[in-house]
Amino acid sequence: MDISLYTAGIEQVLRFDVLALIFIGVLLGIVTGSLPGLSAMMGVSILIPISYGLSPAAGILMLIGVYLGAVYGGSISATLVNIPGTPSAVMTTLDAYPLAKKGQAGRALGISTISSACGGLLSVFTLVLIAPVVANLALEFTSFEMFAIALFGLSIMSLISPGSLTTGLVSGCLGLLIAMIGADPMTAQSRFTFGSMHLFSGVQFIAAMVGLYGVTEVILNIEERFKKSKKNVDIANIKFDKKIPSVWLDIKKLWGVITRSSIIGVIIGAIPGAGGTIASIVSYGQQKKISKKPEEMGKGSVEGIAAAESSNNACTGGAMTTLLSLGIPGDAVTAILIGAFMIHGIQPGPEMFQENIDLVSAIFIGMFIANIFILVIGLGGAKYFAKLLTIPESILNSTILAFCFIGSFAVQNSFFDVQTMLVFAILGYLMVKVNIPRAPLVLALILGPLMEMNLRRSLSIVQDDLGAFAFAFVERPIAGVILLLTFITLIMPIFKMINGLGKQAENSQPKEL
Fold this sequence. Notes:
Residues 19-443 form the DUF112 domain. Helix content is 73%, strand content 1%.
């Protein structure tokens, strides 16, 4: 084992400026996650342009801090106002809010904070152990395996995204079409650029993400405000108990729950496109099955809070494992993080463990420190973050919008990027209105070029012989198994739909007297 993988980044991380940026990133992430209507994707998208002026380690670790902080921050509004700040905190509302209504908001926030930090730390240990092994294995992969992995990632994201399989596939296909804009990777022939040199290198990813998640969310927030005349959140009736020390007694009894749920979170997080929401649902359901007091679940159970929060935070380590070792994002946020790597001239994947070992080491150490910051900030200031929920939306939306415009322009000092941002903002708004998920589009923008390049390479190896191309997957067991899993993933919903229609037809038949 190469010990430098775990020590090479110490000098880059243990500096005041880098530690301060990680702390600021976590703090901003918690703020973003705790405010309903914002998201980790929005926070990371908006701050990527700022990271451009920093060193690769400092900029990427700041964004990872935002990512980790936002996942935890969703539990604050879930606990206090029964509104998950992030989608992954939806299961937290079931028990944290009932506990807060009993006058034990401090206890609920304490358990969610410690469970989140523990889940995150356990996932970092898994990342440190598993990622180098997977990366070494991936170095042996050919273009056939990489094509199969990229295709599998797209199929999983389309299957599990909100809405139907059809809308997920539509979003993914739209992303693939957009990913084809620019120069052909093999021949450099211009495609879909309409004569614009700005599009020759493809759509500017950062501007697209800022528009798709930043500006779109602001538009939706403003629209909701006008439609429902929504009032500012009132937290006056929530009482904070002074029993934080007793939380540690709860945690002693919850180690089994936290460990089991964290393992589930890491595994699900490593599946491209799965994410914290699915992890928290699976962990919560599993805990309810094995709990000695299942009747308390949903009524203020500390087991429910610990299961949901440890699993969704553990997803971050799983998603980063896939990102660093294979160059494939585990979720929409890590897809956006790839953009941060790219603007620093770094391509995530197995080669990183050889060419940028100091950065990989810095990420390992930085993620560990970020989770410690979550624990410190969460226990020390969770109830103060509650006051953020009272900020007028007009101030919040205008501030976010300003950052979106400045950030999109700053990456390349280009007004064309601002126009790109606005186009994707309109696209994102329309997608929300017709219930088409945005996450598959984001993943397709990242995986599309990877999939196309490896498909073209594979076809050139077999001299464009489709029969030989298909037989190559039989000769390569790993690629063949992944392709088979992709096929099963896509046909499963069809069988379920047919089965559902059959049962519906049986139920509609008149019963014999």
